Amino acid sequence: QVQLVESGGRLVQAGDSLRLTCAASGRTAGRYVMAWFRQAPGKEREFVAHILMNGLRTSYADSVKGRFTISSDNAKSTVYLQMNGLKPEDTDVYYCAAALAGQAPAYWGQGTQVTVSS
After folding, report:
1. Which candidate, 116, 70, 75, 64, places its Cα nearest to that of 97?
2. Using one digit for the tens of pLDDT, what is the confidence trace for 31-77?
3. Sign (positive or negative) of CA dihedral 48, 10, 55, 100
4. Containing H/E element for 78?
5. DSSP 109
């Protein structure tokens, strides 16, 4: 079992920066690929970014490339999502997820709300 707890979401203005944090716990947390997804009401959950827990490989959705950066601190079993140049369309609930390589996420956090005002 892996437990994921997100934090850091809040109301910001367009152009602001925000850092989300995902704290992972559980005996096998270090084996997983960690990812961020986001979802707006009535829409499907969409991929934002992922990172191998060794930090050597990352991937981003086109919509956030160049603005968002995913990183990890293995010693703290924590994953971060640094979001710069936020836009109103980035308003969503952001979820942290853990997956074994090549598989769909097996664990999800409870989500943290990010709201970007124009």
Report:
1. 70
2. 789 999 999 989 999 999 999 867 778 999 999 999 999 999 888 88
3. negative
4. strand 78-83
5. -
List the structure tokens of 9: 């979401």
Q: Residue 52 has what pLDDT?
A: 83
Are residues 10 and 112 in contact, defined by beta-carbon separation less than 8 angstroms?
A: no
For residues 27 and 13, is the Cβ–Cβ distance under 8 A?
A: no
Q: By the 8 A CB rule, do 67 and 81 touch?
A: no
Amino acid residing at 33: V
Residue 87 phi, psi dihedral angles, 5° rounding: -120, 155
Give bridge partners of residue 92 from the DSSP assignment: 114
What whole-number distance in Å separates Cα of residue 46 and Cα of residue 39?
Answer: 6
Whole-angstrom distance, CA of residue 63 vs CA of residue 22? 21
CA distance 72 to 54: 8
Determine phi and psi for 36, rounding to 5 degrees. Answer: -115, 135
pLDDT of 15-26, one tens digit each? Answer: 999 999 999 988
